[in-house]
Design brief:
The chain is an all-alpha fold. It has a domain at 14-244. It contains 16 helices and no strands. Helix 8 (135-145) packs across helix 9 and helix 12 packs across helix 16 (318-341). The longest helix is centred in the middle third of the chain and has 35 residues, at 208-242. The two termini are 25 Å apart. 47% of the residues are buried. It holds the Pfam family ArsP_1.
Length: 342
């Protein structure tokens, strides 16, 4: 799933604030004001209006995520890894798109499942689908790119999880991946490991600690989404105003397979989190990027989350890591082709 672990810095911590997206927003707007003052107003208006148009999605996403965290709903994900292997793969792919884990939280969760003997096939299904979509990402994508794109991404997330899960199951039956874990995992990303020993408490407001948790999650995630989306829409405004549409159309426009493959290969190293990517892709589509290439870029970028990649490398053996990347890239390209056709 997408990373929501970056909490706002404490009051008065100016040095940490300078490292946040707010600084980039200010620097970029100042650069426009100095270098191209005639376009400063239009760039600023574009960014502000785009952010306001997504406001209702941001509010609902923050409320939903805070509710899921306060109730402890993520404990339900463990049920996906019970029963027969085929059922586990289907359930893991489905729950991967629903679990409110950040990309770091999912690592100790998966490590624990592997250590307890959960099949790598089901774990891989969850691992591939989880970074692609979650409730807030679905809403942000819908606000920036429309519901058809958001629903398409959600379907692709589950499909990619199933593709990865059943591919790994076939490889395991051929004798591969008998011991996937490298060493006992550790994590220093700042996220706590999911606590799976309790049941969800849907009426969280009846418990003071859970009400406090809801408030803290609402504030921290609200600030997190606001700062990243502010940066995203400023970047989109700069893209629309200063990047020639012909250049975008030449690289990732058109209806062929090549632009989709290029978008996937560019998307993996040029990772953008799932809240920044939709507004930028909206600008790229306006400049001539095909819908299939946009989907391919988004899927590949989500799979290649830098914190998640480092954690994956430290957790599993190289052949599992290579399989994960291979499934992610190939899945992104196929997803883009199918989405373009549909």
């Amino acid at each position: 799933m997408s990373d929501l672990s970056q909490n706002p810095s404490g009051p008065g911590d100016a040095l940490k604030w300078l490292k946040t997206p707010w600084t980039l927003v200010v620097v970029l707007l100042l650069a426009v004001a100095v270098l191209d003052p005639a376009n400063f107003t239009s760039v600023g208006e574009f960014a502000v209006l785009a952010l306001l148009s997504t406001g209702r999605y941001i509010l609902f996403a923050v409320l939903l995520l805070a509710y899921l965290k306060a109730t402890g709903a993520e404990v339900m994900v463990a049920k996906a890894f019970e029963g027969r292997e085929t059922r586990m793969i289907f359930m893991a792919a489905l729950f991967g798109g629903l679990a409110p884990f950040c990309s770091c939280e999912v690592i100790p969760f998966i490590a624990g499942l592997l250590a307890l003997g959960a099949p790598l096939s089901a774990v891989m299904a969850f691992w591939l689908s989880s970074p692609l979509i979650d409730p807030p990402t679905l809403l942000i994508t819908a606000g920036a790119l429309g519901w058809p794109f958001a629903i398409g991404k959600a379907i692709i997330a589950v499909a990619l999880g199933l593709f990865g899960g059943f591919t790994v199951r076939a490889l395991m039956r051929g004798g591969l991946f008998t011991s996937p874990l490298r060493v006992a995992p550790t994590t220093g990303c700042g996220c706590g490991a999911p606590k799976l020993e309790t049941k969800p408490v849907w009426k969280f407001w009846q418990h003071q600690p859970r009400r406090d948790h809801f408030k803290a999650e609402f504030i921290s995630n609200g600030i997190f989404l606001l700062k990243w989306l502010a940066l995203a829409y400023v970047l989109e405004a700069l893209l629309v105003h200063y990047v020639p549409a012909d250049l975008i159309a030449t690289l990732v426009g058109g209806e062929g397979v090549l632009p989709i493959a290029i978008a996937a290969l560019v998307g993996m190293p040029a990772y953008l989190n799932s809240y920044v990517a939709p507004p930028l892709l909206a600008g790229l589509i306006d400049q001539g990027m095909s819908n299939g290439a946009a989907m391919s870029f988004m899927v590949a970028g989500a799979v290649s989350s830098i914190p998640a990649m480092l954690a994956v490398w430290s957790l599993v053996k190289p052949q599992v890591f290579a399989t994960y990347l291979g499934l992610g890239v190939s899945g992104a390209i196929v997803s883009g082709i199918v989405f373009q056709m549909v």
